[in-house]
Amino acid sequence: MxxxxxxxxxxxxxKGYGRVAVAFxxxxxxxxxxxxxxxxxxxxxxxITAHIHSMPEWELYDxxxxxxxxxxxxxxxxxxxxxxxxxxANPPKRCYLCxxxxxxxxxxAAGKYGMETVAEGSNLDDDHDYRPGxxxxxxxxxxxxxxxxxxxxAEIRQISKSLGISVWNxxxxxxxxxRIAYGDTITDMKLxxxxxxxxxxxxxxxxxxxxxxxxxxxxxxxxxxLNSELLRAKSEAVRQSITNGLQEFGFTDITIDxxxxxxx
Length: 264
Known about the structure:
Helix content: 40-55%
CATH architecture of the largest domain: 3-Layer(aba) Sandwich
Structural class: alpha/beta
Number of helices: 10
Shape: globular
Strand order of the largest sheet: 3-2-1-4
């Protein structure tokens, strides 16, 4: 099927769900899903965003802006994922623990607002990545209509662009906890330091950055850039500016990953 045909299939799926709450992060995938839910269901579609410590503040701003732009009712849940049992210890199943806890809260909120179904934005390409959180999606009966309609990431961007969705080319922003090496404790202090560092580098004009940290205090940083931006990042003047900036946030050991950005 073409992306246009898949979009029609997506609308049909959503209409069959009844009243839908979209677990909305503000990223490209969930933005298309929310747009389609509004298209298919009107006011019978709402957005629920989990505002967690691992979410950069600019992502919450983007989510609010999108909902305002398209007139979608937006529910924001304040959730402290650091209180989820086992999460802060940062085991390999960290994402599963977090997703399970967050989805429970979203499902509960959806019920209070009279929603019959909760949907989230996984797509076919997620099958090829390490996504332990998807186990939680299946366990809790949350729908993944983009995946069910057969959308790949490239097709999501393509149809979003054709529909005029402003975030069609937005870069991915995985949760900040994913920057902390497994086994190293996750703390709010580490997360805020990572957030400040990434915002600082993005404000230098880079389109994507990951500040991966390690060590007991999380003061060792290995910075990943897109391959297309790596040469600029490694230039003497830019590298020194980055080093100086991150040192102000408390980092003591700062390197640039020579391989570039990679999903984890």
